[in-house]
């Protein structure tokens, strides 16, 4: 049966789709991976021809994920799907919550974490983690935000993904792993490894 990772944050603009895509690409050489784009606008789904080696499925396939023949399924969620997030969480083995290091982003994360805790009460095996994403280099805010996040009851992953042009453009350049940015590759590889550790623990 497939392991299912859902990428969620009820605030837009925190890089969920970019993380979902590049994580899927990190795993695709070792596992049979599917990426499900649950956003009805389907920006990831419409880019599927650019990633012929990766299965990218449309929003209506979300309800079928438990029956799919894959090793790993990653579900990307849009910010407006709040009423369905709990359903996605209950399907999942792990929920990854990417956030920027801004105070407003951190305040906005509370409602997503509350939904995760609600799902965990129903499904105690569900695990979750917060990942700092789109981090500005040498930002003094990051340390303060990290301390805030560590007190929110959901683990903060050690890996931070920085704000890089290569990552922003990765959906149109074939993904981070096929590009020349070694630092970006290291960050996503580290993020993938850390997620695996959480799921396997």
UniProtKB/TrEMBL annotation:
It comes from the Bacteria. Residues 5-172 form the CobQ/CobB/MinD/ParA nucleotide binding domain. SUPFAM superfamilies: P-loop containing nucleoside triphosphate hydrolases. Pfam families: CbiA. InterPro entries: CobQ/CobB/MinD/ParA_Nub-bd_dom, DNA_Partitioning_ATPase, P-loop_NTPase. CDD domains: ParAB_family (cd02042). Signal peptide: none annotated. This is AAA family ATPase. It comes from Mucilaginibacter agri.
